[in-house]
Design goal:
The chain has 11 helices and no strands. By secondary structure, the chain is mainly α. The longest helix has 28 residues. It is elongated and about 110 Å long. 23% of the residues are buried.
């Protein structure tokens, strides 16, 4: 009847799903044509029934009706992901705020030279060359034993930190390009902090093998802590980088103490090293 047809057309116009932008929601997903389908393939193939033992009988889903995984939006992230992202955001924000000596004309410009010198005291090159010079001038077996193990600990720390930095490739909070000394010491990335790891390892090593007064022991602990803080003030590392560097330095110290080389092994290594230098000269 004309009246019922008019009401039907009005109802279709008022239906939201009949709008052009929502028409795709009413249409079933299009299945891609196979090599035997199309105009010359004798028409579309009949879907395999579950009673015939086809893919539907195995509980599978057709590839054509499966949405791509990269097009899905994670509307309900896990609590673990939210917590990790929040901690990383806090870490980056605090590290940038603490980098007061990062710029030459920043708020910490008067302290920049002193902080830079403090950070340089934890660099790998001064400790490596200083240990080699002390080993060359040492005349006692006990001193040579301690210095050889310290040299091996420094090499272990250098290689481990460099490998982890190459693996993670995390940039610093201010993303400054590494300097020449950083390239030589393979300290080109932020995580973990190489200076912090080395400072903790060296301080624990000296405290364990040298007889020092209480004020000197406190100064060693304070020096290791300030070396890590100086890298944050200079904008080179995040707080998490320094914390992981402290933990890694303590792990290196524990590993070196567990595989401590005795005096005879150290003398053999010194003889091999001396022979190589003589052959080079």
């Amino acid at each position: 009847m004309p009246g019922s047809q008019a009401r039907s057309r009005a109802r279709d116009r008022n239906n939201v799903l009949n709008r052009p932008e929502f028409m795709s929601l009413n249409q079933p997903p299009r299945r891609e044509q196979g090599p035997g389908e199309g105009r010359g393939g004798g028409g579309p193939k009949r879907a395999t029934d579950s009673s015939e033992g086809g893919p539907a009988a195995d509980g599978g889903v057709k590839d054509g009706s499966r949405w791509p995984e990269q097009d899905c939006m994670q509307l309900n992230p896990s609590f673990r992901g939210i917590a990790i992202n929040s901690l990383l955001a806090i870490d980056i924000s605090l590290s940038k705020r603490l980098g007061v000596c990062a710029r030459p004309h920043g708020p910490g410009a008067p302290l920049r030279s002193m902080v830079t010198l403090l950070a340089l005291s934890g660099h790998a090159l001064p400790w490596l060359f200083g240990t080699l010079i002390c080993l060359w001038r040492s005349n006692t077996l006990a001193g040579q034993e301690v210095l050889v193990n310290l040299l091996l600990a420094l090499i272990l720390d250098l290689m481990t930190v460099a490998g982890m930095q190459k693996l993670v490739k995390r940039r610093g909070p201010w993303d400054f390009p590494p300097g020449l000394l950083d390239y030589i010491a393979m300290d080109t990335y932020s995580f973990p902090a190489a200076h912090a790891s080395r400072a903790v390892m060296v301080s624990k090593f000296l405290l364990n093998h040298l007889v020092l007064a209480v004020p000197l022991r406190i100064l060693l602990y304070l020096w290791a802590f300030l070396v890590g803080v100086s890298r944050v003030l200079l904008g080179k590392h995040h707080l998490s980088d320094v914390g992981c560097g402290f933990a890694l330095g303590f792990l290196h110290f524990t590993l070196v103490e567990s595989v401590w080389l005795d005096s005879a092994t150290c003398q053999t290594l010194i003889s091999i090293g001396t022979l190589r230098w003589i052959l080079l000269v």
